[in-house]
Amino acid sequence: MTDKWKDILTQKSSLDPHKLMDYLEGKLSDKEKHEVESVLADSAFMDDAAEGLNEMKDKQKIASILFELNSQLHKKTQQRRKLQFSNRLPFPGWLIFTTVTIILLIVLAYIIFRMYTTE
Amino acid sequence: MSDQDLLENFRKTGDNTWLGTLLERYTLLLFGVCMKYLKNEEEAKDAVQQIFLKALTELPKYKVDYFKSWLYTIARNHCLMKLRDKGKQTLEINEKMPLAIPEEEENKQLFHLMKDREYTLMNEAMDELTPEQRTCIEEFYLGKKTYQQIAEKTGFNYMQVKSYIQNGKRNLKILLQKRLGQS
Predict the structure, then answer these.
(1) Is the pLDDT of residue B176 over 80?
(2) How far, CA to CA in Å, does A107 sit from each of A99, A104, A110?
(3) What per-residue confidence (pLDDT) applies to A119?
(4) In angstroms, rounded to a whole number, what is the distance separating the alpha carbons of residues B139 and A38?
(5) Which of these, A87, B47, B83, B109, could form a disulfide with B88 (CB 3.0-4.6 Å)?
(6) Is A69 within 8 Å of B48 (Cβ atoms)?
(7) What gap in Å lies between CA A55 and CA B97, rounded to an integer?
């Protein structure tokens, strides 16, 4: 039995983003290029991405775009985390705020009342 | 840590940080896909953020078995909808459509079926491809050549080589599945 065709059906390992960038910037040897292309041929996701990234004239800009997108992603996950935390509190924030304000007003009214009655 | 491990940790703890770590792995690919379809840097960045938001909203609701394929479908559909809104596309989009088995899973299943059989099936299937597809597939998988080298050797352009390899491979899988189903 020959297994010369095995490569077509063997799943290639996923691709390191740095390697993909090196491929797009033409920094790889022919052997490495072939390895990257084998992964691209196996994954429509990666192939579409490689095609799209290739449209960027200034490839150096991609790193700063990624940084910006990832920072925004972290902000979003942190916001949701805070929201989840406040949702887990036994009382909602507005109820705590209103209760504290009412108590303070009562205490203030009592102090004023005492000041006038003692005079 | 695998994608599935990160998803599992999110399910156990409900902590969005796990999803953040998972999505960050795909920022480059998502931006690339959005660039491919939208052809505009600002629109692509905006689309990636919307895809992140959609993923953060949807993932707590459903169990996703093939995260990578799921994310790709979400991204592609989002871009196609954007294009449709701009009047560039008339494709019908349905985000709720069931996801097909991802390619990697399909390859595994096929390889498993092939394992115990003669690879003559593959040779027979190869004969049914178009001459262009057969040439490119042989040069790529047997000759281990790059797309560019194949283009130089055959006279096809880069995109044609890529297309012959991808379409040839897809046709090959269909032919093999048919043959394995018959035998």
Answers:
(1) yes
(2) 12, 5, 5
(3) 64
(4) 12
(5) B83
(6) yes
(7) 30
Asked whether A45 and B100 are in contact (CB, 8 A), the reply is no
Q: What are phi and psi of B117, to 5 degrees?
A: -115, 165
- Write down the ipTM of this complex: 0.78
Residue B86, exposed/middle/buried by CB under 10 A (0-12, 13-18, 19+)?
Answer: exposed
pLDDT in tens, A44-60: 899 999 999 998 988 88
The residue behind tokens 């996701």 is A45
With bands split at pLDDT 50, 70 and 90, how would you rate the model's confidence at B78? very high
Q: Which of B9, B10, B11, B16 has the highest number of chain A CBs within 10 A, making it the mutation to test binding with A?
A: B16
8 Å CB contact of A76 and B144: no
Q: Rounded distance, CA B85 to CA A118, Å?
A: 74
Q: Which residues of B are less than 8 Å from A5 in CB distance?
A: 119, 122-123, 141
Q: Which of B48, B71, B149 sits opposite A30 (nearest CB)?
A: B149
Structure tokens at B4: 């599935």
Residues 6+ apart with CB under 8 A from B37: A52, B76, B79, B80, B82, B83
For the stretch B4-40, pLDDT in tens is 899 999 988 888 889 999 999 999 999 999 999 999 9
CB contact under 8 A, B28 and A50: no
CB atoms within 10 A of CB A47: 19
Using a CB-CB distance cutoff of 8 angstroms, which residues of chain A are in contact with residue B108? 11
